[in-house]
Amino acid sequence: MRRKWICVLPLLAALFGCGKSSTPPPTAAASSPSISSNSALRIHWQGKTKISANGNAANLLKILDLPETLKLQDQTLDKLSAAPWRLLLGQTNLTSARLFRPLLDDLVSQECYLEIRPATNAPGAPNQIIFSVNVNADRANSWQSTMTEIMRTLSADAPASNNPAGWFVKSDSRTNFIEFTHAGDWVILSMAQTHSGLLDEAIDRIKNQHTPVLASSTNAFLQAFVDFARFGIQGSSNTLPKCSFEFKFDAASVATTGEIQFPNGEPATLEPWHIPTNWISANAVSITAMRGMAPFLRTSKFWANFNAGSPPDQCFVWADKEFPMQTFLAAPMANASDAATGISNWALRREGTPRLANALAGFQKSKTSDGLSWQGFPFFAPFVHSTTLDGRNFLVAGFLEADIPPGPPMAGVIEGISSKTNLVYFDRELTGFHLEQWIQLGQALRAVFNAGQLTGDSASFKWLVALGPRLGPSGTEITEEAPGKLSFARKSDLGFTAIELHALADWLESPDFPRGTYSVLVRSQEPPL
Q1: How far apart are CA 195 and CA 226, in angstroms?
Q2: Which of 11, 55, 180, 297 is the most buried (most CB within 10 A)?
Q3: Is pLDDT above 60 for 30?
Q4: Which pLDDT value is given to residue 523?
Q5: Are 36 and 497 in contact (CB under 8 A)?
Q6: Which tens digits make up the pLDDT trace of 485-502?
Q7: What's the half-sphere exposure (Cβ side, CA atoms, 13 Å) at 455?
Q8: Are residues 377 and 440 in contact, defined by beta-carbon separation less than 8 angstroms?
């Protein structure tokens, strides 16, 4: 039997690996973790108990101990405790879920490690998976006895050789070999086609290094690595990257560093920045700049849908502080008018995109430009059209068609973007302000697309509201260090930006968690706008 639910357990711990401070964002990328290995996925979480011993973790612990955080944490663990029976058997087994639930508290409080390695011995064979938790002897015994009972409810094959050292289950019908064992201060759950070599390696590391973690960083409270190509996505092995990230404390802030490595990388052609300086307001709470986009967009179905000619290579997005809906996008491109027309025709076309056409019934061809305008929804008027600034053509879009507040932007932004010749992505935001703006903007977008509103009494909504006043500035930069190799650096209060926190909340509120998101799975009872 395939126990895919094992893979999502330690992800929960990562959801709460965040801190709080008002330290300014970084201006340079720090060293990033190594990405060399034959693993497909690795996640290492230090756990709240170890983090509590770090003198720089005080702000993190304040976030973790917020009543809203604790309520969301309990709700998420409750959902996860029922997931094995719901996802694997299509059943609701409350008795087994209540039995499983206490173990999941260890995923937040204790050190955890997940590793997945693709099978190489036979096509279609299941991956090798190990999931390890650092616990004391009493908790280890609880894990063994509880997992023994859980396995009996999930499989017709009862655990064999159940003894103090562990047990195993061999399912001939599904060619899976599931093992539970103790090693040092760790309990390990393993799954493979036969006895796992990955498990043996983890046990050896525990004996020699007292940890199953491969390439552990001593001062990172969260590490993650993923090699997307090794998950066997057909036709993608030569295009998908390897990614690695580390979350560390930098004084009271969270410093996130990472590396993204594309196979067969070629040097990017980075054109000089064409920043719409006179449009980006000094009151902006968020400014994002990207370049080097054209090669990706040129081969994507996303851009091909628009039939809009050559794609843009650069893009700038900013949000004004005064009004949540004043979020704008500007992309310098010679064929801006063709792009505006192509995007407009695609959005208004009913054939091939009925869901979008129905949801965006308020869109109409603009009477004053070559793009789209919106009618019929107060305080929310998305638009797209072309325009000219300082003799350069731009494609412009936004959520409220109003006068763009005049620039120049906040001090240091232009210098931060233009000072690095290898910079491909730049983001600065006042995360608390932007988070609160996205509460309103996110609800408006759900209304437009006929998705269910995130209710005010939901745990995720209350968590977002509680976070807003506690978050200060954040900064993110991605630079090209070598052909096909990107370095990621972020300094922030929480480790995530405002829009990432909203996406996280939407996922955690999913009624089918860990599958899907609330906005996708819950439909509004009202007719589409």
Answers
A1: 24
A2: 180
A3: no
A4: 78
A5: no
A6: 999 999 999 899 999 999
A7: 8
A8: no
Between CA 32 and CA 433 the distance in angstroms is 29
DSSP string of 234-249, one letter each residue:
TT-TTTPPEEEEEEEE
Task: Residue count of the chain, please give it.
Answer: 529
**459 vs 15: CA distance, rounded Å:** 14
Q: Residues 209-217: contacts with CB within 8 Å, 24+ apart?
A: 210/184, 210/185, 211/113, 211/186, 212/113, 212/115, 212/130, 212/132, 212/183, 212/186, 212/188, 213/44, 213/113, 214/37, 214/39, 214/42, 214/115, 215/33, 215/34, 215/37, 216/44, 217/33, 217/246, 217/248
Indicate the SS3 state at residue 474: strand
499's tokens: 């829009």
Residue found by looking up tokens 């190799």 in the block: 485
Q: Which two three-digit tokens encode residue 519?
A: 């906005």
Query: Could you say which of 420, 454, 472 is where a domain stops?
Result: 420
What's the rounded Cα separation, in Å, for the pair 97 and 85? 8
In a domain, 188, yes or no: yes
Structure-token pair, residue 444? 């408006």
Distance (Å, whole) CA 405 – CA 399: 14
Cis peptide before 276 (omega within 30 of 0): no
Residue 215: domain span: 13-252
The set of residues, in sequence order, having a beta carbon less than 8 Å from that of 484 and lying 6+ positions away, is: 261, 262, 263, 264, 265, 266
How would residue 396 be classed by pLDDT, with cut points 50, 70 and 90? Answer: very high
Whether residues 247 and 328 fall in one domain: no
| CA proximity to 437, closest of 429, 447, 449, 448 | 429
Alpha-carbon distance of 392 to 336, in angstroms, equals 10
- The model's confidence at residue 26, banded by pLDDT at 50, 70 and 90, is low
Same domain? 83 vs 227? yes
Percent of the chain with pLDDT over 70: 81
How high is the mean pLDDT of the chain? 83
| Domain-located, residue 443 | no
Q: 264, 238 in Cβ contact below 8 A?
A: yes
Buried b (16+ CB within 10 A) or exposed e, 232-249: eeeeeeeebbbbbbbbbb
Q: Is residue 524 a part of any domain in this protein?
A: no
Percent with pLDDT over 90 in the chain = 50
Number of domains in the chain: 2
